[in-house]
Design brief:
The chain is mainly β. The protein is 7% helix and 52% strand. Mean pLDDT is 88; it is low at 1-13 and 17-46. Belongs to the TonB-dependent receptor family.
C-alpha cells in the first residue's frame, strides 16, 4: 500500500498549480481557525446531517462506513442537477453516462467497481435506491434532483443491509415526505445552450391525518452537434428534453401508524449522445482496408468530414439519431410503531421502464454497423422490516426482501452488422430473496459494536437469439451466499468517532451481454452443412452461460466528526478484495459485436477524506480520494480497472456577504478533478483507450432579500468549457470515443417559496 508521502507526491504531480494552491488552503485555513480566540456561540456553526444508511436514523458521524451526504436544498448551489453531477464531488466516485448512447443513462463506479453496459443480462456493481426502492436498470436513472431531502453515497460493499448489486457501494436518494406544512416552491432556470428548466413543488395538509406533496418538472437543453447526413432528424446530437412528475400521499391516523403512497413518472426524449469513431488509428482490414459489407475503405474523414465539428454525427441512419426513455413507478411505505421498542415497516414497489437508443458504430453515412435498440423491464420488490430495541443498550434491524425483474432487449428490425442483417434478442427473469439482521450494542457510553448477516438466493432464467438458423438458446442458473459485517465505534473525549469495519458483499453471476460467440460455435459444429447437428452441438455446450457469483471483502478503518466548532472531517482507509469479478471485453467477431466476461481477482486499497470548514460567513468543502487497484495477471496480460481514476478531488469555497437591511449575497465556486483512467480493462498504449484527466469549475452567485421571499442567482457550470471523454472502447476494427455532453453553461436561476 502506498504511504502518505506517496499520496502527497501523486496529488502534487496530478493537479494544476491553481488547483493545488486551492487544495492547500484547506489545512492552512483550519490552522488559522484553531489559533483564533473566538467565543463559540450557543448554536453550532453547522449541523450534522442525519442519515439512514444503516436503515436506522443516525448522525452521519455514528455510521461505521465511509459515507458522503448531500442536503437536498443545497444541491443547486453546488451545480448538482442530476446523479452525474454527484459523481464530481464524492471521493473515489466516477459517474459516466454511455449505455446505448443514451443521454439519460447513469453508470456509477465506486472504488473501481461499476458497469458500463445496460443490457438485461448485466447488473451494476453500485446500486441506486429511491426511498428504499432499488432501481434495477441504468438507462433513465439520471434523475433530475428536484425537491430531494438528501442524497447518501455509501462507499464499499453493502452486502448486509443493501444486498442487491452493492459490491462497490450504494446511492440512496431520499425525497421529501408529505407533512402538515402548507408550502409551494417554484424553481426556474434559463441559460445558454437553450437551457429551460422549471420545477413546481406543492406540499399541503388535507386534514389532520392526511397530507400530500407533488412535484412537476420540465428540463430542456440544446445539443452540441448536428446530424449532418440526416437533415430531418428530430433532435440534435446531445439534445435533451425531460418531463417528470411525482405525487405522494401520507396518511397518519395516529402517532403510531403512517402510510405513504407515491407514484412517479418521467418521459425523456433527445438526440444520441455525442461520440466519434477513430478508424485510421486502428487500420483494420475490414474498415480501413475496405473488406466490409459495403466494400468501401473508411477513414476518419468519413466520420468527421473536413469543416465538420467533432460533435457532429455523420450517420445516415435516422433510426439511431433519437433516444427516449419512459419510467413509471408506484410504491407504498407503511410504518407501525408496535410499542415504544419496536417498529414494523413495509416497502412495496412496482416499476416499469422502457427505452429506445442504439449506436451507428461506423459513424458514417454507410449502412455498415448500426444497432438501433429497444429495451424494457418490469420489476416488483417487497421489503418487510422490523427494528427496535432489545434493551437500553442494544438495538437491531431485521428484514425479509423479495425482488423480481423481467426484461428484454431487441435489435434486428433496422440494424445491420457488416452491411447485413443483425439480430439480438435477450430475455431474462431474475428472482432474488433475502433475509437479514443487523444488531448494535453499546458496551460503554463510548464504545459500541455491531454485526450483521444476510442470506441471499438469486435465480436467473435467460435466453438469447443472435442467429435465426440457430434459434433461441436458453439457460438458467442460481446462486446463494451469506454475507456478513462486524464493526466497532469509539467516541473520543473530543467527540470525534473512530470506527473499524470488516464487511462482505455479494453479487450473482451474469450471462454474456452480446453472445455472438454462438454463431462461431454453430459454424464450427458444421453450420448449414448439418443444421440439426450444429444446433444440437451448440445447445449441448454453448457459450451462453453465466459467470460465478462475485464476492467482496472490505477492511476499513476511519475517523470522523467535529474537530472543533469550525472544522469537521471524515477520513477512511480501506482494502477491498474481490473474487470472480467480471470485466466486460468487447470486440468485433465474425458473427457480430461480441461482449464476453473476463473474470478476475481485484484488490482496491486507498484513502478518502471529506472535510468542511466554517468560520463566520465563510465555508469550505473539500473531498479527496486516492486509490491503488491491483488486478490479478491473466495469462501474461495485466488488466486494469476500467473507468477508475486513482485520484479524485473536489473543493467548494463559499462566502455570504451580509448587506444593509438584512439582504445577502452568497458567492460559491466548486472545483472537481478526476485523474486519467482507461476506458477498458487494459492500459496497453497500443489500445489507445486512455482518458485524459479533467478539471471542472462551477460558480453560483445568489441574492436573497431580507424577507427570504425569493432567491435569484447567476450560475456557471463547467465555466472553462472542459471537453473530455466519457469512455473509449477499442473493438479491433475501430475505437469508439464517447464524448462528454457537459459543455459550459451560464444562466439565471430563480426560486421562491410561499
Amino acid at each position: 500500500m502506498k504511504t502518505n508521502t506517496d499520496v502527497s507526491k501523486a496529488l502534487a504531480s496530478k493537479l494544476s498549480p491553481v488547483a493545488l494552491a486551492v487544495a492547500m488552503t484547506v489545512p492552512a485555513i483550519s490552522n488559522i481557525a484553531v489559533a483564533q480566540e473566538v467565543e463559540a456561540t450557543e448554536e453550532q456553526q453547522f449541523e450534522a446531517i442525519t442519515v439512514t444508511a444503516t436503515k436506522r436514523p443516525q448522525v452521519i458521524y455514528e455510521v461505521p462506513i465511509a459515507i458522503s451526504a448531500f442536503d437536498g436544498d443545497k444541491l443547486a448551489d453546488q451545480g448538482i442537477t442530476d446523479l452525474t453531477d454527484v459523481g464530481k464531488f464524492v471521493p473515489n466516485l466516477n459517474v459516466t453516462g454511455f449505455s446505448a448512447g443514451h443521454t439519460s443513462s447513469v453508470n456509477p463506479f465506486i472504488r473501481g467497481i461499476g458497469l458500463q453496459d445496460h443490457l438485461i443480462t448485466t447488473d451494476p456493481g453500485v446500486s441506486v435506491y429511491v426511498d428504499g426502492v432499488y432501481l434495477g436498470r441504468q438507462v433513465g436513472q439520471n434523475w433530475s434532483l428536484n425537491n430531494i431531502e438528501r442524497i447518501e453515497v455509501l462507499r464499499g460493499p453493502q452486502g448486509t443491509l443493501y444486498g442487491r448489486n452493492s459490491i462497490g457501494g450504494a446511492i440512496n436518494i431520499i425525497t421529501k415526505e408529505p407533512d402538515q406544512g402548507d408550502v409551494t416552491k417554484i424553481n426556474t432556470e434559463f441559460g445558454t445552450r437553450g437551457r429551460v428548466k422549471a420545477d413546481l413543488f406543492v406540499n399541503h395538509g388535507l386534514s389532520e391525518t392526511v397530507a400530500f406533496n407533488m412535484n412537476l418538472s420540465f428540463n430542456k437543453r440544446d445539443g452540441l452537434g448536428e446530424f449532418i447526413n440526416v437533415p430531418n432528424a428530430e433532435y440534435d446530437v446531445g439534445e435533451t428534453e425531460d418531463v417528470s412528475g411525482r405525487v405522494s400521499l401520507k396518511w397518519e391516523p395516529s402517532n403510531d401508524f403512517r402510510m405513504v403512497l407515491t407514484a412517479d413518472a418521467n418521459n425523456g426524449d433527445g438526440g444520441l449522445r455525442p461520440y466519434t469513431v477513430l478508424i485510421d488509428e486502428v487500420g483494420s482490414d475490414r474498415y480501413f482496408g475496405g473488406q466490409n459489407g459495403v466494400g468501401v475503405p473508411l477513414r476518419n474523414t468519413d466520420v468527421t468530414p473536413e469543416g465538420a465539428d467533432i460533435y457532429d454525427n455523420a450517420t445516415g441512419t435516422e433510426a439511431v439519431t433519437g433516444v427516449s426513455n419512459e419510467a413509471r413507478g408506484l410504491s407504498l411505505t407503511t410504518e407501525w410503531d408496535i410499542n415504544e421498542d419496536y417498529t414494523a415497516k413495509v416497502v412495496a414497489s412496482q416499476r416499469t421502464s422502457k427505452y429506445k437508443a442504439g449506436l451507428d458504430d461506423d459513424g458514417t453515412i454507410y449502412s455498415l454497423d448500426q444497432f438501433p435498440e429497444r429495451g424494457e423491464a418490469d420489476q416488483t420488490s417487497i421489503e418487510l422490516q422490523l427494528n427496535g430495541y432489545i434493551n437500553e443498550y442494544t438495538d437491531f434491524v431485521a428484514g425479509l426482501y423479495y425482488f423480481n425483474e423481467e426484461g428484454s432487449n431487441r435489435q434486428g428490425d433496422d440494424s445491420n452488422f457488416d452491411g447485413g442483417p443483425n439480430l439480438l434478442a435477450l430475455d431474462q427473469e431474475t428472482t432474488s430473496k433475502a433475509a437479514y439482521v443487523n444488531v448494535r450494542h453499546d458496551l460503554t457510553d463510548e464504545l459500541s459494536v455491531s454485526g450483521g448477516l444476510r442470506y441471499t438466493k438469486d435465480e436467473k432464467d435467460a435466453s438469447a437469439n443472435v442467429f435465426s438458423a440457430l434459434g433461441t438458446i436458453y439457460d438458467s442458473n442460481d446462486w446463494d451466499e451469506v454475507t456478513w459485517e462486524v464493526a466497532t465505534n469509539y467516541t473520543f473525549e473530543n467527540g470525534m468517532t473512530g470506527y473499524a469495519t470488516i464487511q462482505s458483499g455479494y453479487q450473482s453471476g451474469q450471462f454474456p451481454a452480446r453472445p455472438y460467440c454462438l454463431i462461431g460455435q454453430f459454424f464450427g459444429a458444421g453450420g448449414f452443412d448439418d443444421i440439426e447437428g450444429a444446433q444440437a452441438a451448440v445447445r449441448a455446450n454453448n457459450c451462453f452461460t453465466a459467470s460465478d457469483n462475485i464476492t467482496a471483502t472490505n477492511y476499513e478503518v476511519g475517523i470522523k466528526g467535529r474537530v472543533n466548532d469550525y472544522f469537521d472531517i471524515s477520513v477512511a482507509v480501506f482494502n477491498t478484495e474481490f473474487e470472480d469479478l467480471p470485466y466486460q471485453v468487447s470486440r468485433v467477431s465474425e458473427g457480430g459485436f461480441d461482449t464476453a466476461n473476463l473474470v478476475v481477482e481485484q484488490t482496491s486499497r486507498g484513502v478518502e477524506a471529506d472535510a468542511t470548514f466554517t468560520y463566520g460567513n465563510f465555508s469550505m468543502m473539500t473531498s479527496v480520494g486516492y486509490m491503488d487497484v491491483d488486478v490479478e495477471e491473466q495469462d501474461g496480460f495485466n488488466p486494469v480497472a476500467p473507468l477508475t481514476p486513482d485520484l479524485t478531488l473536489a473543493i467548494g469555497p463559499q462566502y455570504t456577504f451580509e448587506l444593509d437591511g438584512g439582504d445577502s449575497i452568497r458567492v460559491r465556486a466548486d472545483y472537481s478533478y478526476r485523474a486519467e483512467m482507461y476506458g477498458e480493462p487494459t492500459s496497453a498504449p497500443e489500445r489507445m483507450t486512455k482518458l485524459d484527466s479533467r478539471e471542472l469549475v462551477n460558480f453560483d452567485i445568489a441574492y436573497t432579500p431580507a424577507n427570504d421571499a425569493y432567491t435569484v442567482a447567476l450560475y456557471g457550470r463547467n465555466i472553462f468549457d472542459e471537453r473530455y471523454d466519457n469512455a473509449r472502447l477499442n473493438t479491433g476494427d475501430y475505437i469508439l470515443q464517447i464524448l462528454s455532453n457537459d459543455a459550459s453553461e451560464f444562466g439565471v436561476r430563480f426560486s421562491t417559496e410561499f
